């Protein structure tokens, strides 16, 4: 029996070697060696995102990068140009300014930003944006944006609060915030039930937004994102609505402020001032021409 097996193996390898020897490798590569065709916007993205920050800014909706649970449409070309300029000016450049160089965003920033033209509807709820493992941020509803009227409240609601929210997730996933934050609202988180709570109710329970009541990590990043993208008058108005529960919001902000300073050397108040100043300048930006 062993003898028969050895013969069979010998024949198998002989056939295999014979087949391999008869194959001729094709000298042509399956990969194109030609440089991709790039329009002026593609070249602008190379110079402002890819080369300095290693961020792939995708404005052409790619099926493999899109969530197939939604019916989505691509972002319009002119609005993609405007959004690319705004994301750089209001988000990337804010962190570059406070850190003094590009290294922080190069190291911790998402490696891809993907624009989607339409909103993402899910059983009556709208997804403002998503982040995947700290590598990709997707922004939805780009086609609702009017580049000729860059209203900062609209921009913050749909896009830039989302950018700061998702980036704060990247930071705490890299180095977790103190356990003391967990204890402030223990037992009061609502999970998926946040959709049934108004912002007023959320404030009076010690959460800066209703979405912050989902769970502790969303609570943490909502504190940071809302503090940065709103001015002092807005923040104080929320505290008044919160009433006695403002003490919980204050405690959360104190921990977040200390965490950002001690962990990342970022003064949250200074970052807020930078973002607010840049937000006030958004209306004067040239969001059409690719001349910078």
TrEMBL record:
Keywords (A to Z) from UniProt: Signal
InterPro entries attached to this UniProt entry: LP_HExxH_w_TonB
Signal peptide range: 1-21
SUPFAM superfamilies: Metalloproteases ('zincins'), catalytic domain
PROSITE patterns: PROKAR_LIPOPROTEIN
Superkingdom, natural source: Bacteria
Claim: Signal is one of the keywords in the record: yes
Pfam families: Peptidase_Mx1 (PF15890)
Protein name: Substrate import-associated zinc metallohydrolase lipoprotein
Source organism: Bacteroides acidifaciens
């Amino acid at each position: 029996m062993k003898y028969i097996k050895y013969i069979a193996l010998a024949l198998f390898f002989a056939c295999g070697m014979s087949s391999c020897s008869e194959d001729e490798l094709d000298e042509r590569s399956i990969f194109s060696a030609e440089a991709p065709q790039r329009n002026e916007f593609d070249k602008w993205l190379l110079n402002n995102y890819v080369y300095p920050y290693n961020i792939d800014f995708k404005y052409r909706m790619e099926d493999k990068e899109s969530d197939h649970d939604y019916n989505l449409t691509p972002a319009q070309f002119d609005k993609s140009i405007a959004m690319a300029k705004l994301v750089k000016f209001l988000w990337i450049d804010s962190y570059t300014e406070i850190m003094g160089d590009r290294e922080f965003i190069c190291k911790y920033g998402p490696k891809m930003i993907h624009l989607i033209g339409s909103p993402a509807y899910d059983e009556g709820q709208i997804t403002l944006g998503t982040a995947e493992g700290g590598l990709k941020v997707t922004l939805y509803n780009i086609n609702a944006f009017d580049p000729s009227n860059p209203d900062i409240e609209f921009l913050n609601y749909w896009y830039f609060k989302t950018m700061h929210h998702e980036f704060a997730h990247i930071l705490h996933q890299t180095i977790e915030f103190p356990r003391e934050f967990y204890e402030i609202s223990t037992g009061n988180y609502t999970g998926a039930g946040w959709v049934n709570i108004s912002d007023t109710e959320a404030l009076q329970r010690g959460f800066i937004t209703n979405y912050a009541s989902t769970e502790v990590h969303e609570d943490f990043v909502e504190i940071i994102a809302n503090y940065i993208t709103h001015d002092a008058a807005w923040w104080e108005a929320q505290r008044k609505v919160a009433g006695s529960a403002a003490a919980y919001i204050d405690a959360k902000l104190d921990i977040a402020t200390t965490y950002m300073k001690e962990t990342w050397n970022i003064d949250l108040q200074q970052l807020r001032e930078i973002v607010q100043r840049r937000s006030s300048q958004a209306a004067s930006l040239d969001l059409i021409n690719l001349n910078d």
